[in-house]
């Protein structure tokens, strides 16, 4: 990628008659040349890097940490005070839920024996029996629960220790006694990681690549590149977890994004390589030309994705910052593999690929078929009636986007788990015995004396929407009191959200005036609401920054005002369509999915990834149109030939990403299912509807104005070129006024 200011350099003098001018090679072509000359060294370097980071990560182990702390919110302040003053509520616990239709007093001996065993297990600090606490038994006496206090936070507990608690508790079950175990630690232990989704995605990618190229070797090259990149990135992320706060759900997301992006980038370069071979270049020259053209596109697109991901860091959303850094590192690694490892692989397999490509081209010529004829026909049809095509596509995308207006952000709890899990059954039993709000209690803190705590408890118990309020529990140092408030409605109910606001905005200030104590509303339910509202407030600024920077880069590349505006609007509509699909399926329960909120951090994460990936296709498609425009100055021809040259590879790349992302619908993790569906729908809309219909329609309607850039802005902006210098025609580089 080259940057110049002001007027371009003068054209080189013509080559002497009879001699062919040696094409100039840009930086990416030179990089490809180095990788070709030192192919085995380049391959050995990547093998060594992969081995080193894999062994290093295994030796160091992971240090993932889920941290969604939001300094300044009431819930986070309450949590900090709990920890500072030694409140029991700062710890985590597991509930062993019992149900016996005869009454839980009947199996008392067996239950107490089981609880005694649980108390001796590693990781258990204390066990409180339902027989020692009347409030832990339902009014009809058939449901009760024992509280198992852990000696650490749920996310820090080894899954093996939690599994032992589950097995020991369930061992006391009988025909009459139902025993289930609930709590966040239990939910984490039940999440069985499986490579099914990853393997399905890889298998689908191989099939699509095989159908596209008709050669096992040709299909394997982009996939090998992606696997090397993803493997290296996963090891680096494990090591980075010791330095940055990275959530434990990062590795599968990294695999998801890295595999899709890695194949995507390699495919864009490899497809250009095939075109150069078809045009008569030898394998070495084809590799240099492919990297000098498509490599620039990959570099630019990768930088755009990284910029979008790093924009998440500015949101300040706890471990989401670490997820963004990890994904940015993954994209950087895949980009490096595409620019260094891929040319080396092409040098190794170049002769075999060339024979296959030329053989296929000869068969195509015999049949009288031209490359991209169907896409050329589609572009011609859109150009004849651009407005109807644009209107129809826009209506379809807006209809799919509409449900996103009612999106409910939050965090899934055990009530959203499969009904076969013990955590879900424990959740349902507690709701049955103690009311729907029992699974999402609010923790109200009163920073004052004991009398203040009693006053706060009395007022909370009388508040509308509150089913019960526990006695005020003083901390170890007596500096604060804690009241557990049980809403009448479930944790994910809108009425519960309204209750949280009512307690924070109305009840707490009044109690502070009456008692002089500081009153804060905390707990997991309040923290989830604080996080969701913070994301909603900060998202507009995040979108503005990402869209602004990306649009500026596009303006520098294409020397156009319209193209960056068009790209930003179309990318946004593809993202809202994806969010609308997620809302329909996961919030409203379409296709039989358990209804629940959309994970609060997913919209911003999907926006960052999809906006960056959409730029891949934007740059690849419009870049080819720009090449034709610079060569011929015929706008209609440029639009038509641009789509004809790139339509096949864009849909193939999109199909690979769709199946890779869609494969994560096979995961048992709800968050990964949401993430996979959102990305798959966004890429589907982008690759088919937007790039193949809306972009050609808009560019045809605006004609030569598409390439217009005001002269003062053209002089001020640096120039970033995607085309090879040798491809530039001997014409003025600045676009003339239409």
From TrEMBL:
Q: Which GO terms describe its cellular component?
A: plasma membrane
Ranges where the SSD domain occurs = 219-348
Q: For this UniProt entry, what is the primary localization, expressed as one broad class? A: membrane
Q: Which SUPFAM superfamilies does its entry note?
A: Multidrug efflux transporter AcrB transmembrane domain
Domain of life, per lineage? Bacteria
Q: Where in the cell is it found?
A: Cell membrane
List, alphabetically, the InterPro entries matched: MMPL_dom, Mycobact_MmpL, SSD
Protein topology in the membrane: Multi-pass membrane protein
What are the alphabetically sorted keywords of the record?
Answer: Cell membrane, Membrane, Transmembrane, Transmembrane helix
- Where exactly are the transmembrane stretches of this chain? 40-60, 199-219, 226-247, 253-271, 298-317, 323-349, 389-411, 541-562, 569-588, 600-622, 643-665, 677-699
Q: Where is this region: Disordered?
A: 1-23
Q: Which family is annotated? A: Belongs to the resistance-nodulation-cell division (RND) (TC 2.A.6) family. MmpL subfamily.
Put simply, this protein is called: MMPL family transporter
Lineage here is: Bacteria, Bacillati, Actinomycetota, Actinomycetes, Kitasatosporales
